[in-house]
From TrEMBL:
PROSITE patterns, alphabetized: IG_LIKE
GO CC, one annotated term: neuronal cell body
Gene Ontology MF terms in the entry: axon guidance receptor activity
Domain of life: Eukaryota
Keywords, in A-Z order: Disulfide bond, Immunoglobulin domain, Signal
Organism per entry: Eptatretus burgeri (Inshore hagfish)
The keyword Disulfide bond appears for this protein: yes
SUPFAM superfamilies in UniProt: Immunoglobulin
Domain Ig-like as annotated: residue spans: 47-137
Protein name (database record): Ig-like domain-containing protein
Amino acid sequence: MYETAIGGRQSTPSRYHHVKTHAVVCAGDTDGTFPCQGFFKRETMAPRMRKKLKTLGLKEGDKLTYKCEARAHPRPEYRWYRDGVLLKKGKGIRIKMGKRTSRLQINKVKLSHEGEYSCEAFNFLGTDEVKGKVTVSKCGEMLMGQPYIYYILDKNVRTHHSTFTQIARTS
């Protein structure tokens, strides 16, 4: 795929000159000149994700944010899934599309938001996907963390082994 960038230049009589980022095509005219047409070459490519999605351990009421970014030409479109089901905007789910990114946001997560999230980037050349797991815990529930066991007393306070005397280390 080539996009026209330069026109009408005079050049030496080479029929086709290829450079890494552009190409120049010249053809002889009857008056002895060789007008050239230049093209910048823009490589097409299927989407390739830049980063994986992280595994998140959240509490009820926390904010969930995932960002997805892919390199591709032409620009890819994005889709978000939870446990293989296509997500749509609404019911507290926000999906924002940028020029080269997509962002999924849930302002107040619930237990029902737990699962495997995936972002899919696609164009006519192909598809790429990244996945991340989200676990959601209730207040007062025990979370296994590294290297300690955590207790969530309320949605804003976490307490670990230094507060409790007989909590086992997990490492």
